[in-house]
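Q: Give me a protein?
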Amino acid sequence: MAEQIPYGITQNLLTILGSNLAHEIGLIYGVRGELRKLENTLSSVAAVLLDAEEQQESSHAVAVWVRRLKDVVYDADDLLDDFATEELRRKTDDRGRFAGQVSDFFSSSNHLAFRFKMGHRIKAIRERLDDVANDISKFNFIPRVISDVPVSRRWRETCSVVEKSHKIVGREENKKGIIELLIQSSSSQENLSMVVIAGMGGLGKTTLAQLVYNDKEVANYFGVKMWVCVSDDFDVGELLKNILRSATNEVVENLRLEELQKRLHKNLNGERYLLVLDDVWNEDKKKWGQFITLLPEYENGSKILATTRSTRVASVMGIDSPYVVEGLKDNESWELFKGLAFKKGQEQMHPNLVVIGKEIVKMCKGVPLVIETIGRILYFKTRESHWLSIKNNENLVLLGDENDILSVLRLSYDNLPIHLKQCFAYCALFPKDDIIRKKELVQLWMAQGYIQTSHENKCLEDVGDEYFEGLLTRSFFQEVEEKLVNPGHCYKMHDLIHDLAQSVAKSEAIILTGDVKTIPKRIHHMSLFRPHQLPQDVMGKPLRTLFMEYYGDDDYETKRFISSLKYSRAMKVRSNYGTVLASLVKLSHLRYLDLSYGHFENLPNAITTLKNVQTLKLVSCNNLKEWPRNMEKLINLRHLEIDKCDRLSYMPRGLGESTKLQTLPLFRVGSDCGRCRHRRMRIGGLNELKFLNDLRGKLIIEGLAHARSSEAEGAIFEGKQYLECLRLYWGWGGSTEATKESEEEEAVSVMESLQPHPNLKELLVQEYGGVRFPNWMMIDGLDLLLPSLVRIEMRFCSRIRVLPPFGQLPSLQYLQLWTLPAAEYMMDYSLSAKPFFPSLKTLKIYEMPNLKGWGMRNVVVKHAPPNSYLEDLQLELIRMELCLSLIRVSSSLKSLEIADVEDLISLPQGLQHLSALQTLSIMACKNLASLPDSIGCLTSLTELKIHLCIRLTSLPKGMQSLRNLHTLEIYSCPYLSERCRKGTGKDWPQISHIPNIIIQ
């Protein structure tokens, strides 16, 4: 396997060398000339990297040259980072930001010593780079612009015929599904349309297309069939020639596009045709547009069937939902393997091999290419040792003749844009089957300097998301569901893709296990995921990433090991020891530091000297009580993750100076804001948030009862355009009758300063202590103030009497009002012509016994405005009149739950308007005596639950009409339970048709 080319770091170096920072460093330390020479030489080397990457595939000498280049590039990166770090320290100290602390580091003697040392280092590195550059002519490297270079895939030529030796299992349903898309779902009057088969390499997309192409039904439906293997560069002229060749079985001479188009139209002669484009890689929308306009568009149901590894390619074709091929099922995989590894019936003679074979099949993860390759390797082999050697092989992609599997999968890597290759290879650091969180991976890429942008105003995290999407759409990641994490944010790599990553990363990244005997000399990234003796060979080496996902037993050895890795950019450490944390302060290059799940009580103050840190993770550090002093020194901090730090009772003063901060999931207002409980604590108030305008995603603020209006002056959230979710928790203030009134007004004043940006999507307010909401919530024009708000939750606001005019909000889809016992009505403006809840889909009202109306305050409850889009309605502990009124005006309901409505005797008679209702739950309505006959009009009802309705004596005859009802639950309803007893109950005939009846 060839060496990985350091494109990302090389580009990052050139960006730094051409920046104002490099100019300043050159002037201050007297190395301007050396830096300029370094930049010029590196530019020359960067220009030939593409050619070097190709040549090293066939030249060991070139591979050695690339290795030398990587070594010097990494050293140069460390050198410039040392310069930048010291310059950052000098600037911040010179501004006097750290009052009362005067560093002597930049006294004249230390400055001269540093300058002398760095001068020697830069000269040595430049000379090494000169040696590398001098060999460019020796290898005849050709300078080329770094762009997306087409990859030759000539050997991948395919045809429409399935190979006779090809055993096919488990694709019948896929074949039927695609034929249905081609034939049954199309109209004979339809213009040319497309079906795209997508999936990672080796899943059998080409085979599936061949099966469809040769199907009799397909042959009868389409008058003309054509097969073209696209593979190579998407040349429109060549494609048309190949299409003509397939249609006519004749050699096509070189013609202009117009002539090719005319000849194609003539040969097709208006017939319905099927064109298969196998193995498409083109991501250029312009090229695809030019190609598709040249094809005949008869209104006869003609189709294009394409196969690709990339959903991005499908999107370029205009297909957002391709037919995604999955791996084979376990039984199908075994059937395929058995047919290849054993002669017919032979498996019965070797039960020991069957056991091992089934383990091997599990390792293949349903990929036919791998199953076939291994099955053929083991054919005729009956010695158990042969089978065990395959089972114990940790990298399946290297198996087969000429690495059959690797050569197929490697195409996906070779076809990646240059900026994604290092990003993909870095993923070799994660174990197989590990959950990969997109945000974390992007942060790690940033720490390594892999993410580049030419736009100053473009956020690196946004660019990183684009990088990730680039890999995802090319099938390098698979999305998985993870309950503990937001959906759409968790991914895995298929085991084979992981094997590919490890093959590409080669000696740069290693997961250290007991099986690893030697550690590569040029290791840069290492994971330790289980107790393992700390590798002494790595100490002092330029390791850039270390994951230690376990708690070390030896405090001293762990500290010594970590402190030796002074060039680390990213570190994940699990530790019980504060002394181990202290060793981190020597790692000045760190950008990413994850100390989550640690058992320490405080962070060492010296950790704030890590000025390059962008990401600091302290998730579930349940013992953490105290912040280090001078948090404002972390001026590059972008992500501070402190979820589940339950004993952390305040936020540090000075945090507001970290203006690059984007992630701050939790902000706790301390009980002594603005004052120090003891000398070591510096407690920050709510105003620390004021200038953190880059905050993104979700922010939870707890302990607002401790906040003072003096600390919350001004619009705290005015500039926070990227914040999507805001959750405000007041907590119990512990007020007495004497202080109650002043605390109520204080709460209103604080809330007045918390007006969100118009981009906010979710708002939660809990235990708010004010008697009224702030003015910004109560105005006529709330729709203009919060036009993007989708979800609102109000909980335990016990003193509020009037609700804001939520009905005006144009985007509101979810509204929950939970335990607001004093609330009487919702503010509305009678002269307003604005729509009332125009988007509301879910409404939940709980424990609001004094709520008298819904809508305009001067309109009687029975005339409440309609809720045309409401689908889910939950009502509990509210007035009967309001309950019935809301049911009457909600015609689109799919789910209705009524609970603890004490005066409810019966549901309204006219239920026929609820024709879409699917779920009806009636809970703890103790006075409910009957259900109306009109319940039979609920023809879409599938589930009916009746719990704790002790006076309900019978079910109406209309129950017999509910033919879609599949579940009926009756709990703790004594009269009803008796009448619905199976076979003997009087109401049994009305419910006997329901498949699932539960009575307790």
